[in-house]
């Protein structure tokens, strides 16, 4: 008789549903409709596969690419308190899963900056420095449930442009197919519009007209989605059984589970497009740097700008200004 036996089907489903229940409060969606674990059949089946084997549940999360190049949105090109809090959140989520499922969970952060760095106009050396700092934060904070995976892990020392071409040529959908999908599929259209908006906001030094900028950003948005899809296919090749998370809003029932890392003004806000503001009630909010700077004082950590902190005195000054 074996020393251990696999949980029966009902126990597997119960544990898998309990794990998914931990994710649901952080579901990133645009419809706001309440959901139950049964609404996420794809994720339940993936989680159940790990539970049956008494193995850690593996999640993949494409994201954490690099900081926005727009200085009105971010504090610099390296991770700051927004990323630090997001990494802690992901680690804590895995720790909570460990209480339900003792083998625990692991999140593979699939840093995708190099995949489309040329399209978002961020230097490759900034992308390398960002990913290296993410790894350092994970190591120094002993976030044992997290790891970082990027193109260097796949294609080694190939030049950056050659890595991008390799991934695009082997995995990206055709432009015609993507355009047809944008016309026919509402979530893809929302993604296309969201990325276009980010590209417009993040473009600095453009000398043409506003309409010319929007045309260029619409063109680049298609390229970003093509490369993102290609990166997703490559991740699936390397982590074929993982539960796929996404930093973009996702409807219930799709293969990707949208996850919100921190509170922000809308469903699209991420730490790499914003700065963190520490509120007077000890909560954290993400917002553009320019706005956070009006609301609080800048805090440095390890000699670098980290976040903003709202103080009661600042709130009182703001109230006095309003009264006047």
What does this protein look like?
With 324 residues, the chain is an alpha/beta fold. It is 51% helix and 13% strand. It is built from 12 helices and 9 strands. The chain has helices spanning 9-23, 41-52, 81-100, 113-120, 124-140, 151-155, 160-171, 175-184, 186-202, 210-238, 289-295, 312-323; strands spanning 57-63, 105-111, 146-149, 243-246, 257-258, 275-278, 284-287, 297-301, 304-309. The strands form 2 sheets. It has a 5-stranded parallel beta sheet with strand order 3-2-1-4-5, with helices on both faces. Strand 6 and strand 7 form a beta hairpin. The protein starts with 8 loop residues before the first helix and ends with a helix.
Task: Quickly describe the structure.
By secondary structure, the protein is of the alpha/beta class. Helix content is 51%, strand content 13%. It has a 5-stranded parallel beta sheet, with helices on both faces.
């Amino acid at each position: 008789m074996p020393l251990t036996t696999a949980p029966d089907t009902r126990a597997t489903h119960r544990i898998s549903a309990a794990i998914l229940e931990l994710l649901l409060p952080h579901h990133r969606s645009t419809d706001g409709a309440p959901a139950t674990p049964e609404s996420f059949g794809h994720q339940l089946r993936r989680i159940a596969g790990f539970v049956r084997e008494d193995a850690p549940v593996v999640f993949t999360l494409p994201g954490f690419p690099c900081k926005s190049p727009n200085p009105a949105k971010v504090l610099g090109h390296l991770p700051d308190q927004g990323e630090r809090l997001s990494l802690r959140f992901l680690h804590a989520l895995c720790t909570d899963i460990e209480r339900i499922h003792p083998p625990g969970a692991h999140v593979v952060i699939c840093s995708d900056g190099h995949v489309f760095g040329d399209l978002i106009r961020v230097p490759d050396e900034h992308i390398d420095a960002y990913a290296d700092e993410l790894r350092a934060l994970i190591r120094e904070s002993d976030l044992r449930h997290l790891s970082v995976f990027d193109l260097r892990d796949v294609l080694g020392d190939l030049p950056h442009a050659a890595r991008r071409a390799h991934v695009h040529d082997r995995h990206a959908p055709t432009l015609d197919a993507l355009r047809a999908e944008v016309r026919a599929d509402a979530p893809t259209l929302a993604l296309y519009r969201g990325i276009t908006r980010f590209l417009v906001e993040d473009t600095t030094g453009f000398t043409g007209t506003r309409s010319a900028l929007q045309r260029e950003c619409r063109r680049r948005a298609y390229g970003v989605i093509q490369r993102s899809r290609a990166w997703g296919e490559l991740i699936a090749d390397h982590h074929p059984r993982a539960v796929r998370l996404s930093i973009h809003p996702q409807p219930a029932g799709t293969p990707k589970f949208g996850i919100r890392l921190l509170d922000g003004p809308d469903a699209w806000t991420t730490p790499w497009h914003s700065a963190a503001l520490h509120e007077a009630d000890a909560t954290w909010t993400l917002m553009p740097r320019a706005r956070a700077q009006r609301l609080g004082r800048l805090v440095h950590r390890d000699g670098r700008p980290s976040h903003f902190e709202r103080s009661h005195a600042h709130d009182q000054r703001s109230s006095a200004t309003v009264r006047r």
